[in-house]
Amino acid sequence: MFDVVAKGFRDVRNRFEGKREITEENIDDALKDIRMAMLEADVNFRIAKKFIKQVKEKAIGEVVKVKAKANEKVEVTPGDHFVKICHDELEGLLGPVDTSIVFSNPRLGPTKIMMVGLQGSGKTTTTGKLAKYLMEREGKRPLLVGADVYRPAAIEQLRQLAERIDVPVHAREGADPVEVCKEALKIAEDKDRDIILFDTAGRLAVDDVLMEELEQIIDTTKPENIFLVADAMIGQDAVNTAKEFNDRLEVDGFIMTKLDGDARGGAALSIKEVTGKPIKFIGVGEKLDDLEEFRPEGLANRILG
Ligand code: GDP
Predict the structure, then answer these.
(1) Distance from Cα 9 to the centre of ligand 1, integer Å
(2) 10-residue block means of pLDDT along the chain (305 residues)?
(3) Residue 121 annotated as binding?
(4) Which atom of ligand 1 is nearest to the CA of 229?
(5) Ligand 1, atom 5: nearest CA belongs to which residue?
(6) Which residue's C-alpha comes closest to atom 19 of ligand 1?
(7) Single pTM value for the model
(8) Where does this protein hold GTP (predicted)?
(9) pLDDT of the residue at 179
(10) Is the dihedral of CA 103, 106, 108, 110 positive or negative?
(11) Distance between CA atoms of 259 and 104, rounded to whole angstroms?
C-alpha cells in the first residue's frame, strides 16, 4: 500500500514536469492526487483533509516566495519542491517522536509493560521482540508473562520466543490471567528480574469482557507502560480498534506491526492523529530483530517513495 501513496507522489512530480514554478493552479491538481493516494492508503478522510489544507497553505506561501525570487536560479524542480513540502508536513503529523519507555525506580520493584491488542495483531511476537530490545539496548533482565490463557498456542509460542532469547516465562494454562499477572510480580523479585512484559489476551474484536479483564490486570499490576499492538495490514479497522482501546485503557503508545511488505502506512498516521498517542515502535518482520524505534522521517520517506 506504500506503493499506492508513492505512486501518488510520482504522479504529483509528473504534474509539475516542464513547469518552472509552483502555481496556485498546479497546486490544486497535485493536491487532488495526494488526497486520492492518501485515501487509498487508508488514511482517515478527516486526516487527509487536514493534511491537504496544511500543505496548501504552505505551498501557497512558497508561491509568493518563488515569485519574490523570480530572478534567482531555480535550484530544485517545482515537483521536488512540492513533494518536500508534503514530506515535511507528513513528518510533522507523524511526530513528535516519543519512543520512551517509563522505567520504575529499581528500589520500588520491576518496571511493568503491558501489551494489549487484538488477536493476531502480533502481540506475542512483539513481546519477544521488545524483551530482546530491552536486553540489548537497556541491559534489562526481562520476565515474560503469558496472560493470554485463551488462545491455545499463545503460551507455547511465548515460551519458544523466551527460550530463544534465554529469558524466563511465567504462565499457567487455563488459570485466571489476573492471578497469573499478580504472581509474576513476586516471581520477578525471586528471579531478580527488573522488567516484566505481560502478553495479555486478545479477541477478534474489542468486547467488554476483555476490557474488564485488562482493567483488572492494570489495577493489580499498575504497569508504567501500556502499549497497544496494532496490525498495519488491517488499515482503517486498526484505527477504530486503537481508539476503542485508548478510550477505555488510556494506552501510552502504539506499536504498529507488519509495516513490512505491503502494509498500509496510512493506519499509522491515522492512529497517531485520532488518539494523540505516539507510535513507539514498528514491527517490520517476523523475526525477533524486526523491531525498530519509530521515526517519522523513515515512514514519510517510505510513503513518498
Ligand atoms: P497475537 O495473536 O497478537 O499474539 O499475534 P502473533 O504474535 O501470534 O502474530 C500473528 C502473526 O503475525 C504471526 O504469524 C507473526 O509472525 C506475524 N507478525 C507479527 N509481527 C509481524 C511483523 O512486524 N511483520 C510481519 N510480516 N509479521 C508479523
Answers:
(1) 30
(2) 53 74 80 82 83 88 63 66 86 89 93 96 97 97 94 91 98 94 97 97 86 97 97 82 94 94 75 91 96 86 59
(3) yes
(4) 3
(5) 122
(6) 122
(7) 0.89
(8) 117-124, 199-203, 257-260
(9) 97
(10) positive
(11) 30
**Residues having CB within 6 Å of any atom of ligand 1:** 117, 119-125, 154, 157, 202, 257-258, 260-261, 283-286, 290
Q: Whose CA is nearest to atom 13 of ligand 1?
A: 122
Q: How many beta carbons lie within 10 A of that of residue 40, not counting itself?
A: 15
